[in-house]
Design a protein that fits this description.
Layout lengths: L1 H40 L1 E5 L15 E2 H13 L3 E5 L8 E2 L6 H7 L2 H7 L13 E6 L5 H4 L4 H12 L3 E5 L22 E2 L4 H6 L10 H7 L3 E2 L9 E4 L2 E4 L5 H18 L2
Parallel strand pairs: 1-3, 1-5, 2-4, 5-6, 6-10, 7-8
Antiparallel strand pairs: 9-10
Helix pairs in contact: 2-3, 2-9
Length: about 270
C-alpha cells in the first residue's frame, strides 16, 4: 500500500514539474519574441542625395561621407540599426571620399552598410512607423534634390509626429526647410536651427551656384537661425530637432541625436 502511494506521489510530482517547465519555456519564448519585436523597431533612417553635379560647373558632388559615417558610428555603436533612403533610390553618389578619416574607413569597410548605401531604398519602400529618427546627411547634392522631395518630407513629418527625432547636418537641412506639420506650420518655425551658413557658402565660392541659400530659406520659414564662425563646430537641439552647421559638426550631431533618443526612451518607461 505504501509503495503504491509513493509511486502515485512521484508521478504527480513529475507531472507538476513538466507543467512548470512547459510554462517557463512558453514565457521565455514570449519574452524573446517581445525583445525581438522591440529590437526590430529600433531603427533610424538616413537620407542621402541622389544628385551628383554642382549645377553647371561640371564638378561632381553627392553626399558628404563624414556626415554619414560619424553619426552612423555614434548611433550604430549605441545599438541602432540604420537604413538608407535617397530621392531616386539605388546607388548614392559620394563626395569627400577621405579614407584617412578612420570613421569613414570603418563605415566603408563594413560590408553590410556599404551594401545598404549603395542600394538605398526608394521613398515608396519606406514605412515611417519602422523608425524612431530620421537623419539628413549633407553634401552639396542635397541642395538640388532634398527641399522639394515631398515623399521624404512626408516620411520625416510622420516620424516627427510619432514622437521621433529629426536631425540634419551641413546641407542636410535642405531636407527640412519645406516640411510642414499637421498643424500647417513649418517644422522649423519657431525652433532654433543651424546649417551651412551664407558665409560658408561664399567661402567655398558656390553662393551663386546653389539653387538657394540655406540660411536664408530656413529664416524665411520661421527658423531661429544660430551659427558660429565658418567651419567651426556648432550643433543645436530644439524640440526633437537636431541640426549641425558643417562637416565639423557631424559627430556631435550623432551624439545629440542619441541624447534625444535616450530622453524619449526614459520617458516611455
Amino acid at each position: 500500500m505504501l509503495n503504491t502511494i509513493t509511486i502515485k506521489t512521484l508521478l504527480i510530482l513529475s507531472l507538476f514539474t513538466l507543467l512548470l517547465i512547459g510554462c517557463n519555456n512558453k514565457n521565455n519564448t514570449e519574452k524573446s519574441t517581445v525583445k525581438t519585436e522591440t529590437k526590430a523597431l529600433k531603427k533610424i533612417l538616413f537620407v542621402v542625395t541622389s544628385h551628383s553635379e554642382k549645377g553647371n560647373t561640371g564638378e561632381k558632388t553627392g553626399y558628404y561621407l563624414g556626415e554619414v559615417s560619424h553619426p552612423w558610428d555614434v548611433l550604430h555603436t549605441a545599438g541602432y540599426e540604420i537604413d538608407f533612403v535617397s530621392p531616386q533610390g539605388g546607388k548614392a553618389p559620394v563626395d569627400a571620399f577621405n579614407m584617412n578619416d578612420s570613421i569613414n574607413k570603418k563605415f566603408w569597410d563594413n560590408d553590410v552598410y556599404r551594401s545598404k548605401i549603395e542600394n538605398t531604398k526608394k521613398p515608396s519602400e519606406v514605412n515611417p512607423e519602422d523608425y524612431v529618427a530620421i537623419h539628413y546627411a549633407g553634401g552639396h547634392g542635397a541642395m538640388w534634390d532634398f527641399a522639394d522631395n515631398t515623399e521624404i518630407a512626408e516620411i520625416a513629418k510622420q516620424i516627427y509626429e510619432n514622437n521621433g527625432v529629426v536631425s540634419a547636418v551641413c546641407h542636410g537641412p535642405a531636407g527640412i526647410v519645406n516640411i510642414k506639420l499637421s498643424n500647417g506650420l513649418y517644422l522649423v518655425d519657431g525652433k532654433k536651427v543651424n546649417a551651412f551658413t551664407n558665409e560658408e557658402e561664399v567661402k567655398v565660392k558656390l553662393e551663386n551656384v546653389v539653387p538657394f541659400l540655406l540660411e536664408d530659406q530656413l529664416i524665411a520659414h520661421g527658423a531661429i537661425f544660430e551659427k558660429s564662425a565658418p567651419f567651426t563646430e556648432h550643433v543645436v537641439t530644439d524640440q526633437r530637432l537636431v541640426t549641425g552647421q558643417n562637416p565639423q559638426s557631424a559627430h556631435s550631431v550623432g551624439k545629440a541625436t542619441l541624447k534625444e533618443l535616450q530622453k524619449l526612451n526614459k520617458s516611455t518607461k
